[in-house]
Model the fold of this input.
Amino acid sequence: METPEWYKLKRYPHIGEPLTIKDYNWVKGYIEDETCIKKHSFLPLIHKCIIQRKYRADENSTIRNPSGKRRRIIGKPKIRNIYYASHFDSLIFSYYNSLLSEAYNKLIKTKNFDSSIVAYRKIPIIEGSEKNKCNVDFAKTTFEFIESNKETKLSVIVADVTSFFDNLDHKILKRQWSNVIVENTLPPDHYNVFKALTKLSYVESDQLFNSYKGTMIVEKGVPNSSTLKENKRIKINSNKYFKEKNAVAYCTKDEFLKNNLNLIITAKNKKGIPQGSPISATLANVYMLDFDQEVYDKVDSINGFYQRYSDDLIIICEQEYEDVIIKFIRDKIENLAKLEISESKTKVYRFEDVDGEFLGFEIDEKTKVPNYNKSLEYLGFNYNGQRVLIKTSGFSKFYRAMKRSFKKSTSLAKNSKNPDRRIFKSRLYKRFTHVGAKRKLIFRPSKEDPKKYIETKEYYWGNYMSYILKSNESMKSLNKSDVITKQSRKFWKNFHLLMKFHEHKLTR
Done:
């Protein structure tokens, strides 16, 4: 059965068991009925914190590692608050996202800043293509603008809006939402969706898990059947094993309404929307419409360049306008968008001729003192006027993920019932080496004839090596070489060193 794009079925555990393709007809009928949605009671969201560690070079240390780099220390971790909607509520948000996204894209195509807003939109690589641009293409467009203006002394201002989703003003959001769908105020169904996002009700995932004494509803195969499945409640030691145990729900909806209403937290927030709902990203673009218009007009008037990728802004202009533009964007973000750009999250770079070579380097915003050791960082890339490289933090994150996967695979092999206790190598090769880098269409067995495979609309998107290869190919016109793929030359060696180490652990 072919379903619309908004009908995206997820498998994460929540309140209530997941929906299936068999539920499509009644779900579609309910969600497309405005009278149903205006009266719909949304279940509370489930809240989780995602903590991202940050490693930074110790500026005060003279100790260096064998490669000559400064010792790295763990910086202040980045904490992201993520809120997940129940499976049914998520489809409501997804459906209204499709309506709002279509209206937004129709509106923005009439604006002169259409090409400047690049996040959360499907922008074809070329007109009529089914392939869309990604962060690699947007970064390249930015670097190409700098490259094409090498004869000019340029300033590049990169700013990050502080706690973007957490600080969206509800009044502005409601007004812009109404404007995009060409209504004086939000219709009752849209307004009920708006309330579900702004009058936040949620439960802590750990509290809900503990209320059922560390048990979860999981999907298991039925004995003596190769196709039938059933849901059972079993004991799970930790939430980190949810995926491994195929957990599908904390509890049913009836169980929650009977036992867990006391866990609901109602946030008395006058600003902010949950990050993680299917509609949040589109709402962020809708919210910034007036800001984007004014900033684009100002930058365009001085023949500059403006691009916004969610809460990351980049502006390129001649150096004489540097201070004027910084002051302008801070004023507009504070007084027009009711948001904030902190000084610590504003970076200023200059690109100019230095001893006969076109170079980009960071400067101190106040003193204008240059730091030639730091180059422009944008959308996961470094650019110094001579070459584009992937940020080293991306490689570090990939290597840490590789180490975790080897550790987990070793643990599974050690504790498995399989007598030879071997690591499942094929999965590791596919995820972390060039073996799994090829992107391809997925084929699945036919329900009528299991021996026959039919084409799906799903794709295997490859791994991090796919991203490296794409980045290298895209940036080659600027780099004039395969310098990006050379950055990854140690991966194959490191992969096999880890394989050898963990195989040895299993034989001890």
Remarks:
- The mean pLDDT is 89.
- The chain is about 35% helix and 20% strand.
- The first helix runs from residue 24 to 31.
